[in-house]
Amino acid sequence: MAPSAQILPTSASDEKYANVKWEELGFGFYRTDNMYVATCKYGESFQEGSIVPYADFQISPCSAVLNYGQAYRTEDDRIMLFRPDQNALRLQSGAQRLCMPYPSVDQFVSAVKKVVIANKKWIPPPGRGTLYIRPILFGSGPILGSFPVPEYTFTVFACPVGRYHKDNVGLNLKIEDKFRRAFPSGTGGVKSITNYSPVWITLAEAKAQGFSDVLFLDAATGKNIEELFASNVFIVKGNVVSTPEISGTILPGVTRNSIIELTRDFGYKVKERVVPVEDLLDADEVFCTGTAAIVTTIASVTFKGTKTGFKTGDKTLAAELFATLTDIQMGRVEDKKGWTVELTDATTPGLKL
Amino acid sequence: MAPSAQILPTSASDEKYANVKWEELGFGFYRTDNMYVATCKYGESFQEGSIVPYADFQISPCSAVLNYGQAYRTEDDRIMLFRPDQNALRLQSGAQRLCMPYPSVDQFVSAVKKVVIANKKWIPPPGRGTLYIRPILFGSGPILGSFPVPEYTFTVFACPVGRYHKDNVGLNLKIEDKFRRAFPSGTGGVKSITNYSPVWITLAEAKAQGFSDVLFLDAATGKNIEELFASNVFIVKGNVVSTPEISGTILPGVTRNSIIELTRDFGYKVKERVVPVEDLLDADEVFCTGTAAIVTTIASVTFKGTKTGFKTGDKTLAAELFATLTDIQMGRVEDKKGWTVELTDATTPGLKL
C-alpha cells in the first residue's frame, strides 16, 4: 500500500517553532515529529509505551475510542494542559463500554505530557492556536470474528490547530430532522468513532447547503436537542442557562462541564435537563462548547426550513465565557479551579523540558 | 509500534495446500500470503490496485465498511465463488451511506478473484471449510476533523475458516432486552464496523452466561426481532416461513436472500415482515443465515429468563436448506440460479490459475 501520510515540513532540530505558517493555521492535519505508542494483549494490562517518530499505524481493521485534549503556550512561554485527568477518565469509561482494556489515569496523563514535550516546537505561539492532542485506543490485533480482539493499542499524537469553526460571527446550524446521532443503549455517551461516521452524511449535506454544522435531535422522540456533530450545546433565556442532561446519548464534554461551573460562578442558574426544540427556538442566546470549539456563539438555527436568529457579539454570555475560559487555559489569570497542569521539570519527572 | 500480526506458518511454494491442520480448522484468523490493495483520493475514483504480500495496514484512525464473501474448493477441485456481485453491490450501498467512494462491481469481483488465485493453496479441502474473503473499504488518509477524509483504501484479504458456530446441535440464543443493535436512520442496514463494536458488550455478556449468540430487538419498540450479532434470523410455523423485513435496521444478507428463494422453491410461503417476539416464541423451528453461518439451527431462545426450545436435527427445514445451499456452493449439483462463479482461465482473464 502506498504511504498515505501527508508529508509536511518538519522542524529542524534547533528551532523554537516548527516550520509552520502560524498565521494561516486552520483546523486541519499536520504531521508532527513524535507520537506515543503502547500496546496491550487481550487479558493483560497496558505496560508503559514509548515515544516514536510519527508514522501511520500498522493495524488490523479496528474499533477506536477517541479522546481529545490540548496543550497551550502561555504568553510567558509556559506550557499548559487543560484537565488531562478528565480526558483520561472519559477514555476509561469509553473503553469499558466497548469492552477494551485501558491505561491508568497516570499513564494517560504521562503519555500526553511526553507527546507534548516531544513535540513542543509544534505548540503554536499564544493566540495562534493550540497543540491538539489525540489519544486513541483501538483493537490492533488480527481477528476475523468480532470479539475479543487479541491485542489493543493505545497511542497519542498531536497536531497544532486553530479554531474549529471559522465562523467567528456565529454559527448557522441546521437542525437535523431525519438522521439521529445516537440512541438509548448506544455509544452516544462515549467518545467513539461509531458516533461520527454514521452522521457524516448529514454534515456533508448541511455543509453543501451552506450551514456551519448540524444540531441533532434525540432518537427516541425527535423532539429534544442533543448536540452538534462534535460539541455540546447551551441555551440562554434570561438568567437561566440550559443544556441537555447526560443520559447516555450525548458526550459528557470536559469543556461542557467546565462551562457549567463558570456559568454558575457568573450568577446564572444552570439546568441540565431535557431541552425541547421549542425552548431552543425561544432562547435569547445559544452557544456550543468543546475542546476544539472552546465556546462558540450560534447565530441561527434552521428547523424544517425556518431560520431563527439569536444574540451574537461581544456582549454575549458566550463571549464572556470564552474570555474567562481561555484566560485560565492560557495562564493569563490565576487558575483557582485547579484545571490546568503546567509542564515543568517538577511536574514531569524523568522528562526534560 | 510493535508488529501486531500473528505470524503463522505460510506455505512453501510448491505445495498444493498451505501448512494448516485442516481438520482442526475453526473460525479464527490465519495469516495468508497475499492481499489486494487499491487506494483512492477524495473526489477521485478507484484505479486498479494490486496484489501485495499480506501485511497489516498502514492507516490513520478509520471508518470501515466490511463485506464478506467466500471461495469454495469442490470435490473435483474446481474453485467457486458465491454471488460476489451481490457483495459488491452491498459494499457500494454501504459506501454511499458512509459518504465514501467505492470500486465498481467489476473491480470488486476482479479483486476477489485475484486474492483467491493468489491464495489458492489456502482454500480448504472440500468439507473442511472455505476461504473467507474480507473486502474492506476505509478512510486511510490523515484527517483531524471528521469529514471529508482525503484518501480511502479498498483492500481484500482472505483466510481459511471452518464453521462460524461450533454448536452443531443448534444454537442457544439470548434475546437481548437492554442493548439495541441498530436504530432507524442509523447504519444497521449496511455492513459497517459501527454495527459491531457497540454491541460487543452484549455478546461478551451472553457468551459468559453460556449462550451461543445474541438476538437483538428493534430499537424503536423493543418488541420485534431483528437479527443475531452477525446473521439474519428466520422462523418456521407450519408452511409459513417469516423473516424480519429489510427496513434499514437489519443487514440485507446475501445468504438471507438466497435462502428466501430456496425456501419458496421448497413450497413454503415466505413472509418478509415485522416479526414480534411472540411469533418467534410460538415458532416450530428457528434458524439463522449468513456467509459464515450458512444456515444454522437455533435450538432455543431465552427471553427475560425463560427458555423456549425449537425443533432441531436432520428433519428440519434448516438442515434441508443447508444441504441444498452447500450442494450449490460446492458444485455438487447444477447451479440453476446462476449464483456461483467458477474460477477458470476463461472467467479470470489475465489471471493464471
UniProtKB/TrEMBL annotation, chains A, B:
Which Gene3D superfamilies does the record cross-reference, listed alphabetically? Answer: 3.30.470.10, D-amino Acid Aminotransferase, subunit A, domain 2 (3.20.10.10)
Q: Which cofactor does it need?
A: pyridoxal 5'-phosphate
UniProt keyword Transport present: no
Gene Ontology molecular-function annotations:
branched-chain-amino-acid transaminase activity
Q: Which residues carry this modification: N6-(pyridoxal phosphate)lysine?
A: 191
Which key words tag this protein in UniProt?
Aminotransferase, Pyridoxal phosphate, Transferase
GO biological processes: branched-chain amino acid metabolic process
Which InterPro entries does the UniProt record give? Aminotrans_IV, Aminotransferase-like, B_amino_transII, BCAT-like_C, BCAT-like_N, BCAT_family
Under Pfam families, the record lists: Aminotran_4
Taxonomically, the superkingdom here is Eukaryota
Keyword field contains ATP-binding: no
**Family indicated by similarity:** Belongs to the class-IV pyridoxal-phosphate-dependent aminotransferase family.
Q: What is this protein called?
A: Branched-chain-amino-acid transaminase
This chain's source organism reads: Brassica carinata (Ethiopian mustard)
Q: What is the lineage of its organism?
A: Eukaryota, Viridiplantae, Streptophyta, Embryophyta, Tracheophyta
